[in-house]
Amino acid sequence: MSPAGQHPLLVAQYLRLREHIPALYGVLSVNAAILAYTHRGLAPGPLVLTVPAILIAICMIRMLVWMRPITATDLDPALVKMRMARVVALAVALSVAYVSWALMLDRYGGPDEHGHVAIFVAVTVLGCIFCLTFLPLAALLVAVAVLGTFLVYCFSVGSEVSIAGALNITLVTAVVVKILRDYYDSFVSLEVSQRELQIERRQAQALGEENARLAQTDALTGLPNRRYFFATLENLLENAGPDEVFTVGLIDLDRFKPINDTHGHAHGDRLLQVIGSRIKAQCPESAIIARLGGDEFGMIVMSGPEETEGITQILCKAIHEPVRIGDTLVSVGCSAGLAVYPETARQADLLFDRADFALYHAKRNKRGQSVRFSENLEKLIRSEQAIDAAIQTADLSNEVSLVYQPIVATDDLSPIAVECLARWTSPTLGAVSPEQLIASAERVGRAREVTLLLFDTALAALAQLPPSLRMTFNLSGYNLCDAETITALLKRMTDAGCDPSRLMFEITETSLITDLRMADRALRRLRETGACIALDDFGTGYSSLSSLHRLPLDMVKIDRSFAARLDESSGRRLITAIRNLARALSLECVIEGIETENQLISARLAGFTLVQGFFIDRPMPLSDLLERFSDLPGQESTRQTAAE
């Protein structure tokens, strides 16, 4: 704040005085000249020429000083205070000098000249008081000095008329001083009110600016928030030139949710704060990075995809650096999706959706990398849209079915269990993969219906299988987080009267990432019936050890990608280590994807007792499966029971 702003009332007085002081000196000069003129032939020359000339010269000089243009220096409070004090002193001195000179002229002339002197005194005192309204001390001192001198003079002369006139002038002056004092008090009150109003406005403005800033800032990380991100994107699109190119990106943390669930939300928040600080430190001037919510961040980079990919790599490297929170050292990765303007889209929602789809593709297929939206992804989107449209009107009871793939013992290839695998044959699209079926069902809200329909089919098939065989049934992350689906599964198990120990529910590590706590709760409800739990695709996720330690598991199924490495010594050592880990935790272990005899032999040599794969059997309909197992003990009685 400027010095003037620190003393607003003092400066306001000074500015008002500047408007009136020149008039004060003008009144004194004109009155003096007129009084000298009326006494020119009566009083001595020095009194009518020399004295008024000196007084008028002083007034003219002071008038010119007060009339010069004002500068910023003139508003310095210390200088203003000094000038105000000088005004008080000069006002008293000049008024006394003028009155003393007038009273000296009163000795000359007749009644008219005496009356002129009295008028001169009255006009002088009233003029000075009016001009000094905004300096009450000076006005009061002038009134006291002038009227005091005049009263003393009148009483010394002894004329009743002079005394009466002096008293009248004094009375009028007192009233005028009172009125002007009230006016000055009103001026002070107004200035104070205006000052307070200005302060309130500035505070309101500052508060508004602060609220606006807070409304656009993420409270946890200090980064811009979702509102700021989309406002900036919309503004860019509105003002984008014909040749302008920029990139919209989405970054999502990998492995954050297991850390958040395992160590608690306080640790998760602290991790996000550290990551936010790293992002701010690494963010170039050409980029805007915002936290959109949870563990997702958005960025707008004023350049093409190549530069953006470079920035993304730098950010991902910074994010991946381990973070110590308390006594715990944690680390997360990240995946990113990019969409380029105007190549990909020209609207904010489409740009964001395309970047989001590219991110989704990265997390499913290229985790830990950045994926740029392309024509291939556009075709995939259209394919998903077609699947979603088909499943919304599909007669699922007639279009969805199950096939079964055996799980066998490595020593004699005797069947131990069968895995249920979903199949959907659409009248309009043809065969649709199980992954697309489940993903589309979740998107359109038919996931529970599909799961329960398949489970009914599985229970009916289980009743026809030999009692020695178990059946595994796959559950998605959506199923695990839907308590009503779990309740419906339990009810169907009870109604079917099946032996729960013959059922095993398979889950994948990626399905656990959605909500580990809810998944754990759902699995324990299923396991309490006597059913078993298997962790499928083990080794491809990011929470393997945590999953093995925390979840109520009975079996792990090693992903098929490891089977191809059974012919390598390093691959066998790795797979043997996984088997030993499972054995130490008292878990059954199945290796999937056995496609050759050599792989089967290597699996047997590595100590695996259970295998599954195309070399053993391909997935088959129930009729083929029953024929395949027709010679198993108990199969005949099972057929009779099923027929009855």
TrEMBL record:
What is one Pfam family matched by this protein?
EAL
Q: Which residues cross the membrane?
A: 20-38, 47-67, 87-105, 117-144, 150-177
Q: Which UniProt keywords apply?
A: Coiled coil, Membrane, Transmembrane, Transmembrane helix
According to the entry, every stretch annotated as the EAL domain falls at: 380-633
Tell me if Chloroplast is a UniProt keyword of this record: no
Question: Start and end of every GGDEF domain?
Answer: 244-375
Q: Which CDD domains match?
A: EAL, GGDEF
What's the superkingdom here? Bacteria
Segments forming a coiled coil = 190-217
Question: Which PANTHER family does the entry mention?
Answer: CYCLIC DI-GMP PHOSPHODIESTERASE PDEF, OXYGEN SENSOR PROTEIN DOSP
Q: What name does UniProt use for this protein?
A: GGDEF-domain containing protein
Which source organism? Novosphingobium indicum
